[in-house]
């Protein structure tokens, strides 16, 4: 059995946040492989370029909220999607993909294989990534 991990490149410009996140999550899980098992990490690497140009439909920029809780009383922080994208353009996509992966010991390992880039980069070209979308 060949357990080589492939490298995929995705251009996030003009792609919708949720639809892109599902495709990335499938590649990180390795669900398209014949030897996929839920307890075995068989996923691939995914490089996302132009993460700052991702599209969001409807009124989500103003209405969608992200919560973070430190554990202390009264310390629940809320941030709108528009503010999150303005501060860090890659965070919304990272949180969306993280939420689509199974909540188990392998999630952090799978998230390490997700490479998010603002703009384009030649940093990962030596791995010869294949375009996920044609």
Describe it.
The protein has 134 residues and is α/β, with parallel strands linked by helices. The chain has a domain at 7-55 and 88-131: Ribosomal protein L13 (Ribosomal Protein L13p, Chain: A). It contains 5 helices and 6 strands. It has helices at 17-29, 60-63, 81-87, 91-100, 107-112; strands at residues 7-11, 45-49, 65-69, 76-80, 114-116, 130-131. The strands form 2 sheets. The chain has a 4-stranded parallel β-sheet. A hairpin with a 6-residue loop joins strand 3 (65-69) and strand 4 (76-80). The two termini are 28 Å apart. The mean pLDDT is 94.
Strand order of the largest sheet: 5-2-1-6
Can you tell me the residue ranges where pLDDT is under 50 for at least 5 consecutive residues? none
Helix content: 25-40%
In CATH terms, the superfamily of the domain at 7-55 and 88-131 is Ribosomal protein L13
Evaluate the radius of gyration.
Answer: 16 Å
N/C terminus separation: 28 Å
Strand-residue proportion: 15-25%
Q: Taking all residues together, what is the mean pLDDT?
A: 94
What letter string, H or E per element, gives the SSE order?
Answer: EHEHEEHHHEE
**What structural class do you assign from the helix and strand content?**
alpha/beta
CATH architecture name of the domain at 7-55 and 88-131: Alpha-Beta Complex
The tally of helices reads 5
What is the overall silhouette? globular
Main β-sheet, in a few words? 4 strands, parallel
